[in-house]
Specification:
Elements (H helix, E strand, L loop, with lengths): L1 H15 L5 E10 L4 E10 L4 E7 L2 E8 L2 E4 L2 E4 H8 L8 H7 L9 E4 L2 E8 L3 E8 L2 E6 L4 E7 L3
Antiparallel strand pairs: 1-2, 1-11, 2-3, 3-4, 4-5, 5-6, 7-8, 8-9, 9-10, 10-11
Length: 157
């Protein structure tokens, strides 16, 4: 009985952990005014939840989990609050998930197809100056006003 009680929390947390179906190796840059990491890592996702892990010498130094909430290294906040505090109050709550999945941001505003992918250039005076491009296995998001750079390039298999 004692062993069962000790294992119950483990079973509970295992049941709550998303079952990621895709695991891709990438070179990742995640730079904001509060955080700066750049190295090899993994993007795990299942269509609903996403986990980005950056490794240095094989050890995870940055873990970003995107689901109903956003968790950075285990500290979780509501999506809109996390985006407002860590990125910009002018961004939609789903922006990070869309960026890491290579999907259009801001509901596809100023979306333009280009050879091998798409790009979006978004500008709002005093709020954001975004250049976002997805071509093949490469993604680059840059906001000059918020001083944010997020890049991801798939490592060949």
């Amino acid at each position: 009985m004692k062993k069962l009680l000790m294992m119950l929390p483990l079973l509970f947390f295992t049941a709550c952990t998303p079952n990621y179906t895709k695991h891709e190796a990438h070179l990742i840059v995640f730079k904001t005014p509060k955080t700066a990491y750049a190295d090899a890592g993994f993007v795990h996702h299942n269509g609903e939840a996403l986990k980005v892990v950056i490794l240095v010498v094989g050890q995870p130094v940055f873990t970003l989990e995107l689901g109903r909430k956003i968790c950075l290294d285990g500290l979780c906040l509501k999506k809109s609050k996390w985006v407002k505090e860590h990125l910009s109050p002018f961004y939609p709550a789903d922006i990070l998930q869309n960026i890491f999945l290579g999907k259009p941001i801001f509901k596809g505003e100023k979306f333009q197809r280009i050879v091998g992918g798409f790009e979006q250039k978004l500008f709002k005076e005093g709020a954001y100056d975004i250049s976002y491009k997805v071509i093949g296995n490469k993604m680059r998001f840059k906001d000059k006003i918020a001083k944010i750079l997020i890049k991801k390039e798939k490592i060949s298999e």
